[in-house]
Known about the structure:
- InterPro entries: KH_dom-like_a/b (IPR015946), OsmC/Ohr_fam (IPR003718), OsmC/Ohrsf (IPR036102).
- The protein is α+β, with helices and mostly antiparallel strands and 140 residues long.
- It contains three helices and six strands; from the N terminus they run E-E-E-H-E-E-H-H-E.
- Helix 1 packs across helix 2 (105-119).
- The chain is globular.
Amino acid sequence: MSKIDQVKTKWLGNMRFESTNPGGNLFIDAGPENGGEGNGYRPKALMLSALAGCAGLDIAHLIPKMKLEVDDFSIDIDGELTETDPATYKKVTLYFSFYGPNLDSDKLMRAVNLSVDKYCGVLEMFRQFAEIDIKVNFNS
């Protein structure tokens, strides 16, 4: 039997919504340039957050399994949109930054590649419509 994720979203008036997700609630709103008040997440940017979260969870899971010493890491994403409506992401660049004095860059690249090539389902979905670019920085 396949797994089903369920999200419930309720209109709160104007351009604002509340969305209930298995992990909690969040608010979605358009920016003032699109008739909203900017009091919530933007839907397309939420997709980028989901992508960072998916890859981040994979790597966080792999760090102890691979016995890596990482003090901190971050994932920044740039999503380039098409110029015509409906605007969709045409190019997405993920910037992985790892911090710590004893970084094993080879093993960390393996962890990133496992996430990017094997485990991250959100990234696989993005591949259906966008060019993906991966950049990795190691900071001692």
